[in-house]
């Protein structure tokens, strides 16, 4: 049996990554989604074991010490991590696996599993990024402002990814994600001029 392929998807908070990934998984049943562990409390509508595996700080730290994570990071005061064993089992069984993680985790995965491929999702503008963050209706003004500041550090990472998708039109962005995982993503390289130009503009518009 051929070993499966590993796909890593990252984006600044508010770029629309989660909505795209959920629809991608619905349309591509051969993909396996690796559910992340997190110490943050569930948001309204989130289900333990489906959206995240919710654990407390002590359990998460114990998993780090036991070497159970493929990657882990602290984001906005909460911990997130991907269980190594879960991913390895799926890949060994010939399944393609998708990780939806932040750029810090993506960098760790590139080091641990360099055969994996990574996709960065960008918002079309700073204004749209802020609109989406506010549209969630779940974060305080202070949290929104912090996420906008953090977006600058996240956007700086775009060139370290293999592919990039600009989430301006949802259906088009979804189609591009499907092209990439089907092996037809040559034209969607993260280093193409369109992405470089947008990234530079977003960085100029987003405070450090």
UniProtKB/TrEMBL annotation:
MF terms in GO: GMP kinase activity
Keyword entries, A-Z: ATP-binding, Cytoplasm, Kinase, Nucleotide-binding, Transferase
Domain Guanylate kinase-like: 4-182
Annotated CDD domains: GMPK (cd00071)
SUPFAM superfamilies, per database record: P-loop containing nucleoside triphosphate hydrolases (SSF52540)
EC number: 2.7.4.8
Family: Belongs to the guanylate kinase family.
Function as written in the Swiss-Prot or TrEMBL entry: Essential for recycling GMP and indirectly, cGMP.
InterPro entries, A to Z: GK/Ca_channel_bsu, Guanylate_kin-like_dom, Guanylate_kinase, Guanylate_kinase_CS, P-loop_NTPase
Main location: cytoplasm
Organism: Natronospira bacteriovora
Sequence positions that bind ATP: 11-18
Keyword Transport listed: no
Protein name: Guanylate kinase
Gene: gmk
């Amino acid at each position: 049996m051929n070993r499966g392929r590993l796909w890593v998807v990252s984006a600044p908070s508010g770029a629309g990554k989660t909505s795209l990934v959920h629809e991608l998984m619905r349309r591509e049943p051969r993909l396996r989604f690796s559910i992340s562990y997190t110490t943050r409390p569930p948001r309204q509508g989130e289900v333990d074991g489906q959206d995240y595996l919710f654990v407390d700080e002590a359990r998460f730290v114990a998993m780090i010490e036991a070497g159970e994570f493929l990657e882990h990071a602290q984001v906005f005061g909460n911990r997130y991590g991907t269980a190594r064993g879960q991913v390895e089992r799926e890949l060994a069984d010939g399944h393609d696996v998708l990780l939806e993680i932040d750029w810090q985790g993506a960098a760790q995965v590139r080091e641990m599993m360099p055969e994996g491929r990574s996709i960065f999702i960008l918002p079309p503008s700073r204004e749209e990024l802020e609109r989406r963050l506010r549209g969630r209706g779940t974060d305080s003004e202070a949290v929104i402002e912090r996420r906008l500041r953090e977006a600058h550090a996240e956007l700086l990472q775009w060139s370290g990814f293999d592919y990039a998708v600009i989430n301006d039109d949802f259906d088009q962005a979804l189609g591009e994600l499907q092209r990439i995982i089907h092996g037809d993503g040559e034209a969607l390289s993260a280093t193409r001029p369109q992405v470089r130009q947008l990234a530079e503009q977003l960085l100029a518009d987003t405070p450090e």
